[in-house]
Amino acid sequence: MPGHEGTSRTGAEDYSIQGQTRRVHQFVRSVGLDKSPFHLVGTSMGGNVAGVYAALYPADVCSLTLVCPAGLVYPTESSFIALLKELDLEKPVAPSKPIPLIPTSMQELEAMLKLCCYKPPTIPRQVRRRALQASVRGAARCGAVRRGAALTDFLRGLLANRIPNNDFYREVFLEIVGEKSRHSLQEHLNLITAPLQVIWGKNDQILDVSGAAVIQKALPHCQVDLLDNCGHAIALERPRKFANLVLDFHNKAKKQA
Questions:
Q1: Whether 4 is catalytic
Q2: Which residues make up the CATH 3.40.50.1820 domain(s) of the chain?
Q3: Which residue in the list 204, 208, 225, 250 is annotated as catalytic?
Q4: Which listed residue (39, 188, 232, 250) is catalytic?
Q5: For the AB hydrolase-1 domain, which residue ranges apply (predicted)?
Q6: Model confidence pLDDT, tens digit, residues 148-183
Q7: 34 is catalytic
Q8: Do residues 163 and 157 lie in contact, with contact meaning Cβ atoms separated by under 8 Å?
Q9: Which fold is adopted by the domain 17-80+182-256?
Q10: Is 204 known to be catalytic?
């Protein structure tokens, strides 16, 4: 997604949901993905973009999975939305005032992870091993490093990588939650014609699971999969379950096409 890791970042771009949707479509055409319909998956902000994309370019999408998508009017307010209301983002915000998803310290990063995850996150064995080797080589060789230390080093590296771009992330975030993009998915639901799957963690504190009912009311034939003991970071918390749900739905949609 433009603006994320591995892409250029410039304030001159339109990072609204509509702007992102147009650039995804440009990419699809540039690499020839539009030669045949494809299955599209979007999570959180990406779910907002994916839903709008499927609505505006229905010929491109054979089936669609939205994972705890943004862009709706949620019947129940989440902890994250309540925090945003306290910030009063409609008014100019001092650069030093933290946004929960844009951490500037380890304490804020840990708070963000608690918001995003039902359980404290762990890191895969291979990543943990590399973190140990890179940050504490001597201790790693003698086996004296605790698993918690590896996670701490990993999170410190993640934070150090993000902080230089925090002003940009803040600009994009304010664009996404602004009037132009805030309810983009809801405004386009009636235009979605592709078979639709909705996946949501029942314990999501970022975007409340009540959003699933909003989509189901607008599109009664959609498939809704709700995960117990799971927060907003579904692909991180339940990767195998998530992958199986998407693959099963995609295969079923292909058979019914």
A1: no
A2: 17-80+182-256
A3: 204
A4: 232
A5: 1-239
A6: 566 677 788 888 888 888 888 888 888 888 888 889
A7: no
A8: no
A9: Rossmann fold (3.40.50)
A10: yes
